[in-house]
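Researcher: Go.
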Amino acid sequence: MKLVKTFFIIIMILFMVYFLSMNNSKADIDLLFKKFSNVSISMIIFTVLSIGIFLGYLLAVFSVLSSKAKNRTLQNKIKSLSDELNDLRNVAVEESIFEKDVMN
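Model: Structure:
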């Protein structure tokens, strides 16, 4: 599976390099705070793609971290409930032993 994933990534990189090399014309970018002139369209595409990948990765990292924290919380709750259940089981057994001793 890792080999297929690596192959897929290599194909995507080659496709991206080919696509970027075909778009070599110039364009102007006017942002709210700055203006850029004569910027290559391939550089614009690459920059926007890189920012998108970075933001997607950042979002995935926060999602995984929050899932792990929730999982840890639930595991602690399960442990405490399991301990409480075991304590309740032991109490019931000990009371029935004492009741038998009193009857005899």
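Model: The first helix runs from residue 2 to 22.
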